[in-house]
Amino acid sequence: MEIRPPVPDDAEAIGVVHVLAWQRGYANGLMPQDYLDALDPSERAAMWAESLSRPPRTDLAARFVAAEGGSILGFILVGPEGGQEDATRGEVYALNTHPDRWGEGVGSALLERGTSFLATHFHEALLWTHRDSVRSRGFYETNGWAFSGAERTVDVLGAEVHEVQYVRPI
Prior knowledge:
5 helices
């Protein structure tokens, strides 16, 4: 497995991973099933193609994919907290892996690469994850992140999500 910056040709595969990860990871009531069923890999691929056509907004941000044998296994997006250039902490904005590869270290490898990048600019990182996702919370805790006690409700690409914050010194 290789961790590398994505290229525009990865957009379609990233779109598929994005949709499959959400459909499996947020099923069973974590997000509305009709919303999950309506997710379209081609729409996500178009979103990714547009994003990958330009560099990250700041030198403090980065995108990485896990690839193996020409397949995209997952992706991570990191940068300054809230996308603010003057932030004092780094943030993991998104981390998704293909559900068929869950438990195989893909997410951990991406998380390590993303936090290593953040460590070149910041001393602490944060992330937000679904409040009721036992799986994702356990994953982050296993990887050295701690629940900060902060919670919020946000609109994530058209769905209301209740999130909790995790932090980690880096």
